[in-house]
């Protein structure tokens, strides 16, 4: 019973969060809350991880191009991207996984 009450409270907190933060994104885009979560996860990366991740994902640079631009090794770029992706995935899974679990419980 306690677990269900906790899940219910977390679901209510999630709904509140989505309603509050949905206004920060495009209100016509149903995925806006998830983009906000992604931005939140990226903001939590270390400065170097964020820099490498954004160069790779947004500017579409190769590992070698990033290494040359930042004067670091290609393997360092690979490590930074792996750590960034792991952190982002964990963050999204923890926030979205709870939401999906709660929806399946109530519907």
SSE topology sketch:
Elements: H1 2-22, H2 32-43, H3 47-57, H4 63-70, H5 74-106
Helix pairs in contact: 1-5, 2-5, 3-5, 4-5
Structural descriptors:
107 residues, 79% helix, Arc Repressor Mutant, subunit A, mainly alpha
Task: Give a structural overview.
The protein has a domain at 45-107: Arc Repressor Mutant, subunit A, CATH 1.10.10. It is built from 5 helices and no strands. The protein has helices at 2-22, 32-43, 47-57, 63-70, 74-106. The longest helix is centred in the last third of the chain and has 33 residues, at 74-106. The protein is elongated and about 55 Å long.
Strand content: under 5%
What is the class of the domain at 45-107 in the CATH system? Mainly Alpha
> What global shape is seen?
elongated
CATH architectural name of the domain at 45-107: Orthogonal Bundle
* Tally of DSSP β-strands: 0
Mean pLDDT: 80
CATH-defined topology of the domain at 45-107: Arc Repressor Mutant, subunit A
Short description:
By secondary structure, the chain is mainly α. Helices cover 79% and strands 0% of the residues. It has a domain at 45-107: Arc Repressor Mutant, subunit A.
